[in-house]
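Allow me, if you will, to draw on your knowledge of protein folds for a short while. The matter concerns a single protein, recorded as an amino acid sequence and a row of backbone structure tokens. Kindly check, if you would, that the fold set down in the tokens agrees with what the sequence suggests. You will find the record immediately after this paragraph.
***
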Amino acid sequence: MSGLKFIVLSDLHLGPVGAAVNGLDTGARLSEAVAVINRDHADAEFVLVAGDLADRGEEAAYHHLRDRLSLLSVPVHLTLGNHDDRAAFLAVFGPQRDDPAGRVSRVLDAGGYRIILLDTSEPGLVGGRLCDGRKAWLSDRLGEARDRPVIVVQHHHANPLSLPVDTIILEEADDFVDILSTHPDVRGVIAGHVHLPTSSFWRGIPMTTIAGSHYSVSPHVPGVPGGQRQFEGPAQMAVVLAARDGVTVHFQDHSERHLVLAPGLFG
């Protein structure tokens, strides 16, 4: 098995060109991420973007996204999050992106691994959900790859983090892990959604979240006084190194500002 390097971005929260989102220029932040990837990781196999591509799901935001991503020097693959609008996304990126069972999901086989980019979004829900079609699709894609290790990349976290965001977790996560457990070598699930880097081991599966490219939040675990705070940075990507014997996820900041954002920016 050869080694594999790929990049995960998440939570871009783009608006139309020139629109600020929660006081941040998310288009400029994406351009910054693209520049860092082109500078540091031009040898990556691909970039995966794990949902919340747009903040309000406008077609103009997806045109903005397409234009910014066109400057990447490596291939890019997309799935959706709860802020996205599937119809608007498909109007810009093409209806062929929507699989009848898997929805905006796809499989990439590289470096001796199977990478599954899984659509966990459901229209009208802030949390995640896998319909029967996506559960069957995931099961089939795992079954095809029993001879190689698997990494799953998706928007919603599946494992409880003891954080406020657990109220909008992936529904029926036990069913999800039961499906993963049919494969002998699932080496990790990488998610966005929570705007915070975490590392967990849940029901035998390594689980990771990344802060993503929008604002970040403080780890407001039980016992921490006050409320959860939002920060301007760091704006973060995951650099995934998948080797024969294991997987390492590096957290690379593409912005290094960590100022506290004013509460009034959040309605």
